[in-house]
Write a structure and sequence with these properties.
two-stranded antiparallel ribbon; alpha+beta; 7-stranded mixed β-sheet; Aminopeptidase; single chain
């Protein structure tokens, strides 16, 4: 057994001991399966959004009956692969799969009354393989937002606004799940995505987590320069190509920089998330577990139960890097433009989307057909070189 394997097992043992001590014997019986926040409580099956596609259905778009493989090139069509049969039972006493809506809030405070959904991801956790796949959903897609109070006269907005409108500070939404609940309903209506649970963290929580694990190591394939013309002295906004050890604030800055487009920022976020996972599993972080747990104490929105958190913590050390994949929609399914936003009362930059095709991609993602599980289709991309519609694998 390697040192890393011993460390991973010790990590599991310490997490189990800490969880038992935190919840206590009585809570184990009364609240072990109780969600830590309001449930999503998604309604029954919603019909597809009646949003008129911004595209005249050009022939270059992937057909709804076909889908990308893990090595799809823009405009290339391949059938969805068959799901391989895995007879093994789910690990860590978990379900077969779990679909989690993960949100990074741009709120700079400690609460969740306000804040846009700065980062929006669907995370599919496969407890059988085991495998974790993450679908980036661009926050600037113009969508229909359901269940808003009609007195405000708002029924459309950017996807990230659904999270803002749903939280208590705005008073626009009174349904279940607060900001994550309204965002989940918006994803369901427009994309057919129906997450089981949610997890939202604001910027302060992310900084505290990274600092608690002693920072993260990131290797940038290219320089990232987020400075404007009049910010040449802002060295904190420039990261040269190569290796970096980042503290919490630096990791947050890198994850938020948009050098060329929102897509490059998503690539940087993927690198940072991979680095966080790697640092969490470093044996030297074992004595820091109390600080790591404290970084999340009362600082997140989630309807995960202590039992589910324990299952996810158990699965984390068993995930091989090649089985942690990030996927994105192909560029040709989105088109940049501007439109008038009633919520902010001005013209804003948005993506118009081909929703019919994106629903096919989301359905394939939910079923585990996209990206295809390894080794059914090899990953040919190098870490950090993500193209739209292809797969990024943790280094």
């Amino acid at each position: 057994m390697t040192r890393m394997e011993r460390g991973a097992r010790l990590l599991l043992l310490m997490i189990a001991i800490l969880l038992w001590g935190l919840v206590g014997y009585d809570y184990y019986h009364s609240g072990w399966q109780t969600p830590l926040g309001p449930r999503l409580d998604l309604p029954g099956q919603i019909s597809p959004a009646q949003t008129t596609s911004a595209f005249p259905a050009p022939s270059s778009l992937p057909a709804v009956t076909s889908a990308p493989s893990a090595t799809l090139l823009p405009g290339q069509q391949t059938p969805f692969p068959e799901i391989p049969s895995f007879p093994a039972a789910p690990r860590c006493n978990g379900p077969d799969t779990l679909l989690i809506l993960a949100v990074g809030s741009d709120s700079r405070g400690s609460g969740y009354l306000y804040g846009l959904g700065d980062v929006i991801r669907l995370v599919r956790v496969d407890f059988t393989l085991p495998r974790l796949t993450v679908l980036e959903i661009p926050r600037d897609i113009w969508v229909e937002i359901p269940e808003l109070d009609p007195k405000f006269g708002i029924d459309h907005g950017k996807l990230n606004q659904a999270y803002l409108y749903g939280n208590k500070g705005m008073g626009y939404y009174s349904g279940p799940g607060e900001g994550p609940g309204l965002l989940a309903r918006t994803l369901d209506l427009n994309f057919g995505a129906r997450p089981d649970n949610y997890l939202a963290a604001n910027m302060q929580t992310f900084v505290r987590l990274v600092d608690a694990i002693g920072g993260v190591d990131v290797v940038l394939p290219n320089s990232v320069d987020g400075r404007k013309a009049d910010q040449s002295s802002r060295t904190d906004l420039y990261f040269e190509a190569g290796s970096h050890h980042l503290n919490g604030q630096q990791a947050l800055t890198l994850a938020r920089l948009r050098q060329l487009s929102t897509f490059e920022r998503a690539d940087n976020q993927n690198l940072v998330l991979c680095a966080v996972r790697k640092s969490l599993l470093t044996p030297s972080n074992l004595p820091k577990l109390p600080e790591i747990i404290a970084a999340f104490d009362g600082a997140i929105q989630t309807d995960l139960s202590p039992q589910q958190i324990s299952q996810l913590a158990c699965l984390l050390p068993q995930l091989q890097a090649q089985n942690i994949n990030f996927v994105t929609f192909p560029l040709e399914t989105l088109r940049a433009t501007r439109t008038y936003d009633k919520g902010v009362q001005k013209d804003v930059y948005i993506f118009q989307a081909d929703f019919e095709t994106l629903r096919a991609y989301v359905n394939a993602f939910t079923l585990g057909q996209w990206p295809a599980p390894l080794p059914a289709l090899p990953i040919t991309l190098t870490p950090g070189k993500t193209s739209r519609g292809e797969t990024f694998t943790c280094p």
